[in-house]
Each structure stands twice: as structure tokens, then as C-alpha cells.
């Protein structure tokens, strides 16, 4: 459904950010993209909604080459919540920011009103409806980006560093939003340095380094590999590290309670 074929990209200043990327992402799946600063993660996802077009190779979304579609056409299907909200938010009020996409994509007034209310309530922004987005806190700005993208219900949702600035409660909400989207058959792509946040979701994981995908597979497998961890400068989620230390299958430990139980059983057995 999303396909990169031999894609390379150079930014205007001559920095090569993607090197020969080959990738397929199927409908209804969850994919995480991880890797150190400057690895090319944001550059890669910006190719999916056509904000950037490949210098070499092709990107196809729903079978159509992104070079043959405008960003506006693609945005209806592919929503991106940017890494930096200040690059995304531009309206005078929280309400108008959330309504922008809804109006642009020609929804009826009734539907606009319903979706606006849903988005503002879900992301805890209803009390700010008449406030300028610029006056929101960092975490609130980020949630306004989610609200304005999700309100029009795109088929593919890309979240670039969604957990930055989010407290525990709102991180949990992001998790439930992702699970909800997946249950509706939507496709989600999350770029994140927050491996602890990603671990319970157990996504397919792409590891990027220096413009290339250096590993691709189930998160537990990909992050079990010492060489990948070293090359991409990653720190493993603690439950995975613990499983490795205990010589367990990496996915056995999905939460602390489970881990504690196993350790207790082992220590009793060892007496
Ligand atoms: N607009 C731009 N103009 C020029 N160079 C850019 C631009 N955006 C990114 N780059 C460069 O391209 C490379 C990849 O950047 P990108 O933003 O894709 O990395 P990233 O993996 O998202 O990093 P981070 O984890 O810091 O968000 C970096 O070397 C960066 O300096
Ligand atoms: Mg980035």
C-alpha cells in the first residue's frame, strides 16, 4: 500500500538524507521508525504524504506515484502530525486549526461540528477552543496537531515523535488512539525515540542510520541484536534488557508484573 522503491533524497543544501530505501508497508499495520538524530526518519515519512518527492526512485501510496499527486490530494489519505508543532500550526484559534482540514476536505457542517467536538474532547483541548495555538504549552500544541490531523480521519496516520512533552496520562491516550485506529483497519506509522512507549505496542520496527534502513522486523527481534543497537545508538527498553539478562525469549516480558512473577518463580526454584 505504501511502497518505496530505490528511493534516495538530497536536501537543498546537499545533505543526502535517504540512501536507496526499499520498503513496503501494508494496510492496517503499525510500523515504528527508530534511530539516532539525523538518521533520516522525518525525511522518510515526509515522502509518504508527498511533502518531499524522491530525487531517485519512486514512492507509491495506494498504488499511485507521489510525483503524480499533489500534497493536498495525498493529505486526505495520509495525515502527518509534525515533529515540531510550530511548523504545523498556523490558525488564529484552536477551533479554526482543527476545522481547517475538515473544511478543506468538504465535510458537511454537521460532520465538521461533530468531528471538531470529538477531537477537542479526546485530546483535552475543549477549554482552549478560542485560544491562539501559539499560547498553548508544548504538550498541548502537540495534541492540537493530533486533533487537527485525526479529525478528518485519514487512512494512514503518521506521528513524528508523538510522546515528546506528553505526561503519562496523555501517552496512554496516544496508545489507545493508535489501538483504536488499528482496530478500524487504519495504518499507523510512528517515528519515535521513546522505545519504552513503543515496547508494549510491539510494532514492526524499522531502524534507520545514516539515511538507510539497517534493520526491519518484529521489535523484540530487531532490538535484541547488539550490532543494530550499537550502529543506531539505541538504548533497549528495560523489559527487553531484563529478558535478555534472564536468558528469556525477548517477548516473554511485556509488563513489570509478568517480569516480577518470573523472577520470583526462578528465585524460589533456585533455593
Ligand atoms: N530542511 C532541511 N534542509 C537541509 N537538511 C536537512 C533538512 N531537514 C533535515 N536535514 C538533514 O537531513 C538529515 C536527516 O534529517 P531528518 O530530519 O530526516 O532526521 P531524523 O532522523 O528525523 O532526526 P531527529 O531524530 O533529530 O528528528 C540530517 O542530516 C539533517 O541535518
Ligand atoms: Mg525527525
Key structural traits:
271 residues, Rossmann fold, six-stranded mixed beta sheet, four-stranded antiparallel beta sheet, 10 strands, globular, binds adenosine-5'-triphosphate, binds magnesium ion
Give a verbal description of the structure.
The chain is of the alpha/beta class. 39% of the residues lie in helices and 22% in strands. It has helices at 41-46, 71-77, 94-104, 109-122, 138-150, 168-183, 195-198, 219-224, 226-231, 238-245, 256-270, and strands spanning 2-10, 16-25, 30-34, 56-61, 64-65, 78-81, 156-160, 187-191, 204-209, 212-218. Strand 1 (2-10) and strand 2 form a beta hairpin. The longest helix is centred in the middle third of the chain and has 16 residues, at 168-183. The protein starts with a strand and ends with a helix. The structure holds adenosine-5'-triphosphate (ATP) and magnesium ion. Magnesium ion binds at residues 41-42, 83, 160.
Amino acid at each position: 500500500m505504501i511502497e518505496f522503491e530505490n528511493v534516495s533524497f538530497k536536501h537543498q543544501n546537499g545533505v543526502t538524507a535517504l540512501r536507496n530505501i526499499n520498503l513496503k508497508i501494508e494496510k492496517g499495520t503499525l510500523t515504528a521508525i527508530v534511530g539516532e538524530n539525523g538518521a533520516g526518519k522525518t525525511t522518510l515519512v515526509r515522502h509518504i504524504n508527498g511533502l518531499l518527492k524522491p530525487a531517485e526512485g519512486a514512492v507509491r501510496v495506494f498504488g499511485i506515484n507521489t510525483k503524480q499527486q499533489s500534497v493536498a490530494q495525498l493529505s486526505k489519505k495520509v495525515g502527518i502530525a509534525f515533529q515540531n508543532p510550530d511548523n504545523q500550526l498556523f490558525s488564529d484559534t484552536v477551533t479554526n486549526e482543527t476545522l481547517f482540514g475538515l473544511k478543506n476536505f468538504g465535510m458537511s457542517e454537521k460532520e465538521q461540528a461533530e468531528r471538531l467536538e470529538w477531537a477537542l474532547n479526546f485530546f483535552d483541548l475543549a477549554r482552549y477552543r478560542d485560544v491562539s495555538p501559539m499560547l498553548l504549552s508544548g504538550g498541548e500544541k502537540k495534541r492540537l496537531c493530533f486533533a487537527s490531523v485525526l479529525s478528518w480521519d485519514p487512512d494512514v496516520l503518521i506521528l513524528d515523535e508523538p510522546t515528546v512533552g506528553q505526561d503519562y496520562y496523555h501517552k496512554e491516550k496516544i496508545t489507545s488512539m493508535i489501538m483504536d485506529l488499528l482496530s478500524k483497519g487504519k495504518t499507523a506509522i510512528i517515528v519515535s525515540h521513546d522505545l519504552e512507549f513503543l515496547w508494549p505496542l510491539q510494532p514492526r520496527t524499522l531502524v534507520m542510520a545514516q539515511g538507510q534502513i539497517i534493520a526491519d522486523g518484529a521489535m523484540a527481534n530487531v532490538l535484541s541484536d547488539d550490532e543494530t543497537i550499537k550502529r543506531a545508538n539505541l538504548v533497549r527498553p528495560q523489559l527487553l534488557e531484563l529478558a535478555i539478562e534472564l536468558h528469556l525469549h525477548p517477548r516473554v516480558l511485556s509488563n513489570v508484573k509478568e517480569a516480577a512473577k518470573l523472577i520470583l518463580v526462578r528465585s524460589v526454584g533456585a533455593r
